[in-house]
């Protein structure tokens, strides 16, 4: 038993979130169709929030840009996988090149294109972004989000502008979404456990000492920035394939606030917190949604979801400023009488 615990202890911070996701995913097997949709959307949000955590949690820099990367990934995937009706793409997206305009590709190609597109854009933007720090970096990330929204809202021949791209094949269900969420967790864990993750967190906690020790802070931030953008872009692609319809309004302030709120509630500096935050906020908002719909015993006014989420976020910031996980990861308890390794 002790030997097993010694084997599990190094991976425990990722293993527990994985078990939580598996348990949540299994709920969809024994539940109705609406619950399965809720589980699928929750898992996709886990992918996005974990993608946000990879950069924000390890660097300590708050980013508003990652929903912009999700939008880039969603549209890149849609260009490849759309549409179930052959005439929809030439009619609504006439600006696409011929190899996209007259062909439809499987979801795997769409996910790959989402990862590549978001990664390339992140690399280009990151060369400038990583030179900034603190509030300047956060403002720059918000500016990037606004630029993505403006470009995609007006690029009518390629993105359909403010109109929606419909007839996207709905290939994402609770099973695939859960697997994607688990993969995102292990990618984040692999990064934070690597030397790059350790060096980036060192620059977050003690930037002067890290720089004096030879840590190339900009390089570490760039690696985390690109990796987190790729994960967020895949999350956006999954979201488009889950909804079957895509509009740029879905990837702006509302989703940005929601992902940051989920990460803040769970704990910005904790991978387990990223997962716990999504689970808790989803359960809380769904309870309020049912109460708003009038089907519950207790009924509440419309719009209480947003108000309730705002109140919860304020309370967390006051009484638990480091989130529900208090900035810690899940750890395997020590065996009785055994001293922890220092």
Descriptors:
342 residues, mainly alpha, 16 helices, globular, ABC_transp_permease, cell membrane, LivM-like, membrane, Branched-chain amino acid ABC transporter permease
Oligomerization category of the chains in this entry: single chain
| Biggest beta sheet summary | none
Report the β-strand fraction as a percent range: under 5%
- Compute the number of helices: 16
Roughly what percent helix?
Answer: over 70%
The first-to-last residue Cα distance is: 21 Å
Subcellular location: Cell membrane
InterPro entries: ABC_transp_permease (IPR001851), LivM-like (IPR043428)
Membrane topology: Multi-pass membrane protein
GO cellular component, one term: plasma membrane
Summarize the entry for a quick read.
Helix content is 70%, strand content 0%. It has 342 residues and is mostly helical. The mean pLDDT is 91.
Question: What features would you describe in this structure?
Answer:
With 342 residues, the protein is an all-alpha fold. The protein has one domain (12-319). The chain is 70% helix and 0% strand. It has helices spanning 2-8, 12-27, 33-59, 66-81, 88-92, 98-101, 107-129, 134-154, 156-159, 174-193, 195-205, 207-212, 217-243, 253-266, 271-293, 304-319. InterPro entries: ABC_transp_permease, LivM-like. Its main location: membrane. It is a multi-pass membrane protein. It is found in: Cell membrane.
């Amino acid at each position: 038993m002790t030997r097993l615990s010694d084997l599990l202890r190094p991976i425990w911070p990722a293993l527990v979130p994985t078990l939580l996701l598996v348990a949540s995913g299994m709920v969809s097997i024994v539940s109705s169709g609406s619950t399965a949709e809720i589980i699928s959307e929750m898992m996709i949000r886990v992918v996005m929030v974990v993608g946000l955590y990879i950069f924000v949690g390890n660097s300590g820099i708050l980013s508003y840009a990652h929903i912009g990367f999700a939008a880039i990934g969603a549209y890149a995937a849609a260009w490849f996988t759309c549409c179930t009706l052959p005439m929809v793409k030439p009619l609504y997206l006439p600006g696409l090149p011929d190899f996209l305009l007259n062909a439809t590709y499987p979801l795997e190609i769409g996910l790959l294109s989402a990862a590549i597109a978001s990664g390339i854009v992140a690399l280009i933007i990151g060369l400038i972004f990583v030179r900034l720090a603190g509030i300047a970096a956060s403002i720059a990330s918000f500016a990037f989000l606004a630029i993505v929204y403006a470009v995609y809202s007006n690029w009518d021949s390629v993105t359909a502008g403010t109109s929606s791209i419909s007839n996207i094949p709905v290939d994402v269900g609770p099973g695939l979404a859960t697997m994607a969420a688990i993969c995102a967790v292990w990618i984040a864990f692999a990064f934070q456990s690597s030397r790059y993750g350790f060096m980036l967190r060192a620059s977050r906690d003690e930037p002067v000492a890290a720089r004096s020790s030879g840590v190339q802070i900009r390089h570490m931030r760039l690696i985390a920035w690109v990796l987190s953008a790729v994960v967020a872009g895949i999350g956006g692609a999954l979201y488009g394939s889950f909804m079957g319809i895509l509009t740029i309004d879905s990837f702006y302030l509302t989703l940005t606030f929601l992902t940051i709120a989920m990460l803040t509630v769970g704990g910005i500096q904790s991978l387990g917190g990223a997962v716990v935050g999504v689970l808790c906020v989803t359960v809380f908002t769904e309870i309020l949604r049912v109460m708003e719909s009038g089907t519950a015993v207790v009924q509440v006014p419309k719009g209480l979801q947003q108000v309730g989420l705002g109140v919860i976020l304020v309370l967390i910031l006051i009484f638990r400023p480091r989130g529900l996980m208090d900035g810690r990861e899940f750890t395997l308890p020590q065996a009785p009488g055994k001293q922890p390794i220092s």
